[in-house]
Amino acid sequence: MGERFAVNCNADTFLPAARETLTDEATDLLRHSLAPATERALRGDLTHFQDWGGSLPATPATVCAYVGDHAGYHAVATIQRRVASISKAHEMAGLPNPCRAEVVKATLRGLRRKHGTAQRQAKPLMRDDLLLVLDSLGETLRDQRDRALLLLGFAGGFRRSELVALERADIETVRQGLIVTIKRSKTDQEGAGRRIGIPHGRTRHCPVAAIEAWLSASAIDTGPLFRPITRHGHVATNPLTGDVVSVLLRERLATAGIDPEGYSGHSLRAGFATSAAQAGVSALKIRAMTGHATDAMLARYVREGELFTGNAAGALL
Q1: 105: annotated active-site residue
Q2: What's the mean pLDDT when you consider all of the chain?
Q3: Is 123 a catalytic residue?
Q4: Is residue 263 a contact partner of residue 253, using CB atoms and an 8 Å limit?
Q5: pLDDT tens, 92-132?
Q6: Active site residue: 90, 159, 160, 250, which one?
Protein backbone atom coordinates (compact mmCIF):
# COMPACT_ATOMS: atom_id res chain seq x y z
CA MET A 1 0.00 0.00 0.00
CA GLY A 2 2.95 2.33 0.67
CA GLU A 3 3.96 2.31 -2.98
CA ARG A 4 0.43 3.03 -4.15
CA PHE A 5 0.11 6.09 -1.91
CA ALA A 6 3.54 7.46 -2.74
CA VAL A 7 2.97 7.28 -6.48
CA ASN A 8 -0.76 7.89 -6.81
CA CYS A 9 -1.66 10.02 -3.82
CA ASN A 10 -4.60 12.05 -5.03
CA ALA A 11 -8.31 12.37 -4.47
CA ASP A 12 -8.83 8.80 -5.73
CA THR A 13 -7.28 7.53 -2.50
CA PHE A 14 -10.22 8.74 -0.41
CA LEU A 15 -12.04 5.95 1.40
CA PRO A 16 -10.92 3.04 -0.81
CA ALA A 17 -13.34 0.59 0.78
CA ALA A 18 -16.31 2.81 0.02
CA ARG A 19 -15.35 3.87 -3.47
CA GLU A 20 -17.52 1.22 -5.13
CA THR A 21 -20.61 2.74 -3.50
CA LEU A 22 -20.02 6.18 -4.99
CA THR A 23 -21.86 7.38 -8.06
CA ASP A 24 -19.93 8.56 -11.09
CA GLU A 25 -20.94 12.14 -10.32
CA ALA A 26 -19.67 11.90 -6.74
CA THR A 27 -16.44 10.31 -7.90
CA ASP A 28 -15.88 13.15 -10.35
CA LEU A 29 -16.40 15.75 -7.60
CA LEU A 30 -14.02 13.81 -5.37
CA ARG A 31 -11.29 14.07 -7.98
CA HIS A 32 -11.62 17.87 -7.80
CA SER A 33 -11.39 18.02 -4.00
CA LEU A 34 -7.63 18.67 -3.94
CA ALA A 35 -5.96 21.66 -5.57
CA PRO A 36 -3.27 20.55 -8.06
CA ALA A 37 -0.52 22.19 -5.99
CA THR A 38 -1.74 20.42 -2.84
CA GLU A 39 -1.82 17.10 -4.66
CA ARG A 40 1.73 17.56 -5.95
CA ALA A 41 3.04 18.52 -2.51
CA LEU A 42 1.28 15.57 -0.88
CA ARG A 43 2.67 13.14 -3.45
CA GLY A 44 6.18 14.53 -3.03
CA ASP A 45 6.09 14.26 0.76
CA LEU A 46 4.83 10.68 0.69
CA THR A 47 7.42 9.70 -1.91
CA HIS A 48 10.11 11.06 0.43
CA PHE A 49 8.64 9.01 3.29
CA GLN A 50 8.61 5.88 1.15
CA ASP A 51 12.16 6.42 -0.13
CA TRP A 52 13.28 6.60 3.49
CA GLY A 53 11.68 3.21 4.10
CA GLY A 54 8.22 4.08 5.34
CA SER A 55 4.93 2.66 4.12
CA LEU A 56 1.22 3.10 4.79
CA PRO A 57 -0.32 2.25 7.11
CA ALA A 58 2.51 3.43 9.35
CA THR A 59 2.95 3.00 13.09
CA PRO A 60 3.60 5.84 15.56
CA ALA A 61 7.08 4.41 16.15
CA THR A 62 7.86 4.57 12.41
CA VAL A 63 6.76 8.19 12.17
CA CYS A 64 8.86 9.08 15.22
CA ALA A 65 11.88 7.34 13.67
CA TYR A 66 11.32 9.27 10.43
CA VAL A 67 11.27 12.56 12.32
CA GLY A 68 14.37 11.62 14.32
CA ASP A 69 16.38 10.64 11.24
CA HIS A 70 15.76 14.00 9.57
CA ALA A 71 16.00 16.28 12.60
CA GLY A 72 18.88 18.68 12.18
CA TYR A 73 19.22 17.90 8.47
CA HIS A 74 15.95 19.39 7.19
CA ALA A 75 14.08 22.51 8.28
CA VAL A 76 11.62 21.98 11.11
CA ALA A 77 8.81 23.35 8.94
CA THR A 78 9.64 20.83 6.19
CA ILE A 79 9.55 17.87 8.58
CA GLN A 80 6.27 19.07 10.11
CA ARG A 81 4.73 19.44 6.65
CA ARG A 82 5.77 15.92 5.70
CA VAL A 83 4.30 14.49 8.89
CA ALA A 84 1.10 16.40 8.14
CA SER A 85 1.05 14.77 4.69
CA ILE A 86 1.48 11.33 6.24
CA SER A 87 -1.40 12.14 8.57
CA LYS A 88 -3.62 13.35 5.72
CA ALA A 89 -2.91 10.24 3.65
CA HIS A 90 -4.09 8.00 6.49
CA GLU A 91 -7.23 10.09 6.98
CA MET A 92 -7.93 10.05 3.25
CA ALA A 93 -7.80 6.27 3.14
CA GLY A 94 -9.77 5.73 6.35
CA LEU A 95 -6.74 4.19 8.08
CA PRO A 96 -5.82 4.55 11.77
CA ASN A 97 -3.77 7.74 11.95
CA PRO A 98 -0.41 7.25 13.74
CA CYS A 99 0.23 10.99 13.77
CA ARG A 100 -2.55 11.47 16.30
CA ALA A 101 -0.62 9.40 18.84
CA GLU A 102 0.74 11.38 21.79
CA VAL A 103 4.23 9.98 21.23
CA VAL A 104 4.32 11.52 17.73
CA LYS A 105 3.02 14.85 19.02
CA ALA A 106 5.65 14.81 21.79
CA THR A 107 8.39 14.00 19.27
CA LEU A 108 7.37 16.99 17.16
CA ARG A 109 7.40 19.21 20.26
CA GLY A 110 10.92 18.01 20.98
CA LEU A 111 11.89 18.73 17.37
CA ARG A 112 10.66 22.32 17.67
CA ARG A 113 12.37 22.86 21.04
CA LYS A 114 15.72 21.47 19.95
CA HIS A 115 15.93 22.57 16.33
CA GLY A 116 13.27 25.23 15.94
CA THR A 117 14.18 28.75 14.88
CA ALA A 118 12.07 31.80 14.24
CA GLN A 119 10.34 31.53 10.90
CA ARG A 120 12.09 33.65 8.31
CA GLN A 121 9.72 36.31 7.13
CA ALA A 122 9.88 38.58 4.14
CA LYS A 123 11.00 42.06 5.08
CA PRO A 124 8.00 44.40 4.76
CA LEU A 125 8.26 47.18 2.19
CA MET A 126 7.06 50.10 4.27
CA ARG A 127 5.18 53.04 2.79
CA ASP A 128 8.08 55.52 2.95
CA ASP A 129 10.48 53.10 1.27
CA LEU A 130 7.88 52.32 -1.40
CA LEU A 131 7.65 56.05 -2.15
CA LEU A 132 11.43 56.21 -2.55
CA VAL A 133 11.26 53.34 -5.04
CA LEU A 134 8.46 55.02 -6.97
CA ASP A 135 10.36 58.31 -7.07
CA SER A 136 13.25 56.52 -8.78
CA LEU A 137 11.10 55.28 -11.67
CA GLY A 138 11.00 56.95 -15.06
CA GLU A 139 8.36 56.87 -17.78
CA THR A 140 9.44 53.95 -19.96
CA LEU A 141 6.99 51.15 -20.61
CA ARG A 142 8.75 48.96 -18.06
CA ASP A 143 8.70 51.77 -15.51
CA GLN A 144 4.97 52.23 -16.00
CA ARG A 145 4.33 48.50 -15.60
CA ASP A 146 6.43 48.27 -12.46
CA ARG A 147 4.86 51.41 -10.97
CA ALA A 148 1.37 49.97 -11.52
CA LEU A 149 2.34 46.56 -10.14
CA LEU A 150 4.05 47.93 -7.03
CA LEU A 151 1.28 50.39 -6.21
CA LEU A 152 -1.54 47.92 -6.79
CA GLY A 153 0.28 45.15 -4.91
CA PHE A 154 0.80 47.43 -1.92
CA ALA A 155 -2.59 49.18 -1.97
CA GLY A 156 -4.46 45.88 -2.13
CA GLY A 157 -2.19 43.88 0.17
CA PHE A 158 -2.05 41.25 -2.55
CA ARG A 159 0.00 38.08 -2.66
CA ARG A 160 2.35 37.89 -5.62
CA SER A 161 0.35 34.91 -6.93
CA GLU A 162 -2.79 37.05 -6.88
CA LEU A 163 -1.05 39.89 -8.71
CA VAL A 164 0.25 37.77 -11.58
CA ALA A 165 -3.10 36.00 -11.94
CA LEU A 166 -4.99 39.25 -12.53
CA GLU A 167 -6.52 39.84 -15.95
CA ARG A 168 -7.81 43.01 -17.59
CA ALA A 169 -11.39 41.90 -16.97
CA ASP A 170 -10.66 41.75 -13.21
CA ILE A 171 -10.16 45.54 -13.10
CA GLU A 172 -13.29 47.69 -12.99
CA THR A 173 -13.12 51.49 -12.95
CA VAL A 174 -15.68 53.25 -10.74
CA ARG A 175 -16.03 56.81 -9.50
CA GLN A 176 -14.26 56.04 -6.21
CA GLY A 177 -11.33 54.24 -7.84
CA LEU A 178 -10.95 50.61 -8.90
CA ILE A 179 -12.67 47.37 -7.98
CA VAL A 180 -10.27 44.45 -8.29
CA THR A 181 -11.71 40.94 -8.43
CA ILE A 182 -9.49 38.16 -7.06
CA LYS A 183 -10.98 35.01 -8.55
CA ARG A 184 -8.90 32.55 -6.57
CA SER A 185 -6.19 32.74 -3.92
CA LYS A 186 -4.19 30.66 -1.47
CA THR A 187 -6.97 30.72 1.14
CA ASP A 188 -9.79 30.48 -1.43
CA GLN A 189 -9.16 27.18 -3.19
CA GLU A 190 -12.87 26.80 -4.00
CA GLY A 191 -12.82 29.94 -6.11
CA ALA A 192 -15.49 31.93 -4.28
CA GLY A 193 -13.55 35.07 -5.13
CA ARG A 194 -13.47 38.47 -3.43
CA ARG A 195 -13.72 42.08 -4.56
CA ILE A 196 -11.26 44.69 -3.30
CA GLY A 197 -11.75 48.45 -3.51
CA ILE A 198 -8.69 50.49 -4.45
CA PRO A 199 -9.42 54.19 -3.84
CA HIS A 200 -7.80 57.15 -5.56
CA GLY A 201 -4.54 58.05 -3.86
CA ARG A 202 -3.97 61.25 -1.93
CA THR A 203 -0.38 61.67 -3.13
CA ARG A 204 1.23 61.91 -6.56
CA HIS A 205 1.66 58.13 -6.40
CA CYS A 206 -1.93 57.05 -7.02
CA PRO A 207 -2.54 53.34 -7.70
CA VAL A 208 -5.61 54.10 -9.82
CA ALA A 209 -3.73 56.56 -12.04
CA ALA A 210 -0.80 54.12 -12.31
CA ILE A 211 -3.03 51.29 -13.51
CA GLU A 212 -4.79 53.55 -16.01
CA ALA A 213 -1.43 54.77 -17.36
CA TRP A 214 -0.15 51.20 -17.74
CA LEU A 215 -3.29 50.06 -19.56
CA SER A 216 -3.09 53.01 -21.90
CA ALA A 217 0.63 52.59 -22.64
CA SER A 218 0.45 48.81 -23.08
CA ALA A 219 -2.84 48.79 -25.02
CA ILE A 220 -3.95 45.76 -23.00
CA ASP A 221 -7.69 45.27 -23.39
CA THR A 222 -7.93 41.56 -22.59
CA GLY A 223 -5.85 38.81 -21.00
CA PRO A 224 -3.15 39.05 -18.29
CA LEU A 225 -2.75 42.44 -16.64
CA PHE A 226 0.96 42.26 -15.85
CA ARG A 227 3.20 40.82 -18.59
CA PRO A 228 6.86 40.56 -19.54
CA ILE A 229 8.32 43.26 -21.76
CA THR A 230 10.89 42.21 -24.34
CA ARG A 231 14.22 43.98 -24.74
CA HIS A 232 12.76 45.57 -27.86
CA GLY A 233 9.94 47.12 -25.83
CA HIS A 234 7.16 44.75 -26.89
CA VAL A 235 4.54 43.60 -24.38
CA ALA A 236 4.26 39.79 -24.29
CA THR A 237 0.97 37.92 -24.21
CA ASN A 238 1.78 35.70 -21.20
CA PRO A 239 1.61 36.81 -17.56
CA LEU A 240 4.56 37.53 -15.28
CA THR A 241 5.48 34.79 -12.81
CA GLY A 242 5.58 35.16 -9.05
CA ASP A 243 9.36 34.78 -9.05
CA VAL A 244 9.70 37.68 -11.48
CA VAL A 245 7.77 39.89 -9.05
CA SER A 246 10.40 39.17 -6.38
CA VAL A 247 13.29 39.86 -8.78
CA LEU A 248 11.63 43.02 -10.06
CA LEU A 249 11.10 44.35 -6.54
CA ARG A 250 14.68 43.72 -5.45
CA GLU A 251 16.05 45.37 -8.60
CA ARG A 252 13.91 48.45 -8.05
CA LEU A 253 14.95 48.66 -4.39
CA ALA A 254 18.63 48.51 -5.33
CA THR A 255 18.15 51.25 -7.92
CA ALA A 256 16.53 53.43 -5.25
CA GLY A 257 19.55 52.91 -2.97
CA ILE A 258 17.83 50.48 -0.59
CA ASP A 259 19.55 47.21 0.33
CA PRO A 260 17.30 44.50 -1.23
CA GLU A 261 18.44 41.75 1.16
CA GLY A 262 15.45 40.09 2.84
CA TYR A 263 12.83 41.47 0.48
CA SER A 264 10.64 39.25 -1.70
CA GLY A 265 7.37 39.32 -3.60
CA HIS A 266 5.59 38.99 -0.25
CA SER A 267 7.11 42.28 0.94
CA LEU A 268 4.35 44.36 -0.69
CA ARG A 269 1.64 42.50 1.23
CA ALA A 270 3.65 42.53 4.46
CA GLY A 271 4.45 46.20 4.02
CA PHE A 272 0.82 47.14 3.50
CA ALA A 273 -0.34 45.26 6.61
CA THR A 274 2.49 46.59 8.77
CA SER A 275 2.15 50.16 7.53
CA ALA A 276 -1.63 50.07 8.02
CA ALA A 277 -1.24 48.78 11.59
CA GLN A 278 1.34 51.50 12.25
CA ALA A 279 -1.17 54.09 11.01
CA GLY A 280 -3.76 52.81 13.49
CA VAL A 281 -5.99 50.93 11.04
CA SER A 282 -7.98 48.18 12.77
CA ALA A 283 -7.15 44.51 12.19
CA LEU A 284 -10.68 44.03 10.83
CA LYS A 285 -10.14 46.67 8.14
CA ILE A 286 -6.72 45.27 7.23
CA ARG A 287 -8.13 41.75 6.94
CA ALA A 288 -10.90 43.02 4.67
CA MET A 289 -8.17 44.03 2.21
CA THR A 290 -5.64 41.22 2.62
CA GLY A 291 -8.08 38.33 2.98
CA HIS A 292 -6.35 36.89 6.05
CA ALA A 293 -8.67 34.29 7.54
CA THR A 294 -8.10 35.25 11.19
CA ASP A 295 -6.56 37.97 13.35
CA ALA A 296 -3.99 35.41 14.48
CA MET A 297 -2.62 35.11 10.93
CA LEU A 298 -2.36 38.90 10.75
CA ALA A 299 -0.94 39.33 14.24
CA ARG A 300 2.77 39.37 13.35
CA TYR A 301 2.27 42.34 11.03
CA VAL A 302 0.22 44.19 13.63
CA ARG A 303 2.88 43.55 16.28
CA GLU A 304 5.60 44.83 13.95
CA GLY A 305 3.61 47.95 13.12
CA GLU A 306 2.92 48.72 16.79
CA LEU A 307 6.48 48.28 18.09
CA PHE A 308 6.83 52.02 18.68
CA THR A 309 3.18 52.84 19.40
CA GLY A 310 2.84 53.74 23.07
CA ASN A 311 6.35 52.38 23.61
CA ALA A 312 7.18 52.43 27.33
CA ALA A 313 10.79 53.47 26.73
CA GLY A 314 9.55 56.48 24.78
CA ALA A 315 7.94 57.84 27.90
CA LEU A 316 11.15 57.49 29.90
CA LEU A 317 14.05 58.49 27.66
Answers
A1: no
A2: 84
A3: no
A4: yes
A5: 888 899 999 999 999 999 999 998 766 567 789 999 999 99
A6: 159
